Amino acid sequence: MFDLLNVLLYGVLTGVIAYLLGSISFSIIFTKLFSHKQDIRTMGSGNAGATNVLRSVGPKAAICTFIFDFAKGILSVFIGRQLFAYMTTFTSIEGIGSGELIQYGAYIAGFCCAMGHIFPIFFGFKGGKGVLTSWAIIALIDWRAFVMVIVVFIIVFLFSRIVSLASICAAASFPVFTLIFNYFVDYQHQSSAAGPTSMLYVVSTVIIALLQAGILIYKHRSNIQRLLAGEEKKITVKKKN
Q1: Which stretches of 161-198 are DSSP H helices?
Q2: Distance between CA 168 and CA 191 in Å, rounded?
Q3: DSSP string, 3-25
Q4: First vs last Cα of the chain: how many Å apart?
Q5: Distance (Å, whole) CA 147 – CA 6
Q6: With contact defined as beta carbons under 8 Å apart, do 109 and 14 qualify?
Q7: 24-38, 161-175, 179-193: lowest mean pLDDT where?
Q8: Mean pLDDT across the stretch 106-112?
Q9: Are 198 and 229 in contact (CB under 8 A)?
Q10: What sign results for the dihedral spanned by CA atoms 186, 151, 175, 98?
């Protein structure tokens, strides 16, 4: 019971820290810095994301947004792993290895950071769609899934030149690749670098991936409506006179 309480406590601590990090909306911050204190949520598509910053403000602000949104995802997962790694020095759960527990910390941190980005407490719970931050999270959680998700994004984008469509397809592929690698590779062959993989881990991680993908796709609902109507814009860079 004491060990389970430790896991719960560290899970909550990890989630809160990651959520607060995710709530730092760099698209809003850099737009204010580069465009005379305007709010990116009142410009262009109204989305607090790098693509809208690129279209509405310019490449400098967009690059800064890209780097920092990606970095906060990496930092969140790193903190989650470190907290759970420390916890495993005095906590053990029967049937779950320390490496698997540490991965739980990574998934919790990643999911909560993405939720902070989408629903930031510091900016009225109105944030971005979480694509860049989610990429960083996936990269640290499972590089194999990250590579495949990026491949999906690139292929769709090259054919369509529409960032939102590529993002939706990439998000939808995340739980699929999570299932493929965590079950068909790691569980079936017990080949995970984190140690033996349990069915609980497979189910938990696929559910988290489904939730994260579902929320990302839901946040793109206005884009989906424009896609169906043939009105979604292709990527362009704002030209200054």
Answers
A1: 163-179, 188-189
A2: 30
A3: HHHHHHHHHHHHHHHHHHHHT--
A4: 66
A5: 34
A6: yes
A7: 179-193
A8: 96
A9: no
A10: positive
CA 214 to chain centre: 12
Report domain extents, the chain. Answer: 2-229
- CA-closest candidate to residue 220, choices 163, 156, 168, 153: 168
Residues 52-71 pLDDT 10s: 999 899 999 999 999 999 99
Look at residues 117, 75, 71 and name the one whose alpha carbon lies nearest to residue 219.
Answer: 117
Residue with tokens 């560290």: 10
Q: How far apart are CA 15 and CA 90, in angstroms?
A: 20
Pairwise pLDDT comparison (214 vs 196), residue with the higher score: 214
CA quadruple 11, 68, 149, 120: dihedral sign: positive
Sign of CA dihedral 130, 135, 141, 144: positive
Burial class (CB in 10 A: 0-12, 13-18, 19+), 106: buried
